[in-house]
Phosphatidylglycerol--prolipoprotein diacylglyceryl transferase
Amino acid sequence: MSLLNFITWNVDPEIFHLGPVSVRWYGLFFALAFVIGQRILSKIYVTEGRTEGDVDAITLYMIIGTVVGARLGHTLFYDPEYYLSNPIEILKIWEGGLASHGATIGILFSLWLFSRNHKFNYMWVLDRIVIVVALGGALIRLGNLMNSEIIGKVTDVPWAFKFLRNNEIINGVAASQDPRHPTQLYESLMVFGLFVLLYWLWKKYKENLPLGLLFGLFVTLLFSFRFLVEFLKENQVDFEDTMALNMGQLLSIPLILIGLFVLFRVWQNPKPALPGGKLAEAK
């Protein structure tokens, strides 16, 4: 094959290490997702009459909800038999194994707790947080690309990536070195575009946006794309090979339905935030 037929991807997932401490691209992008997200959320909150103290509080809830949800999602959705038999292994996050659907559930639950404890309107919180979650998702998928993980199926498209450092096991054997769909990049670009859309809508309309519109758009568009892109991915675990739809697709369906339900409610009975930058009262 000529160099025009694929892109050779041989990036070292480790940036540098000092003794036993290793700094990796995935960890860097994961941290940047929260750091940059906090700055954007601070601008949103201050503009709408809240304080940076509220942002600090919600960031803490978000970090805990994301990490715990993503880890438990991986252990329960993709390999429950192993982890329930070896529960101590659940704590070993540094060995890898985070699920985006689990992170979504963890975020939704942690933000519900935040809204209840800090007297926020839950839907208002969700509408604003999905803006930064979209940006974070784009960065984390770039981390997956740097790790040469969550690879796509073999393809001959000219933008295919040849992942020289991939060591995933597919159907009991090591993944081939054939060029593959860079599905991590597909998802990163899509979610970044979703971030731009959501931020633009907020910046242009702010408190005049119907409550639930940003959240409904985010959930519907993100998981509809996730459902489709899964057709281009290699299955993550062996038991998915016998399924008509893989686990990522099955978990996306209820989230798509939730998003469509929220959008229907917004269309049926729009409830904008109060004028003057004030928030709708918590119900």
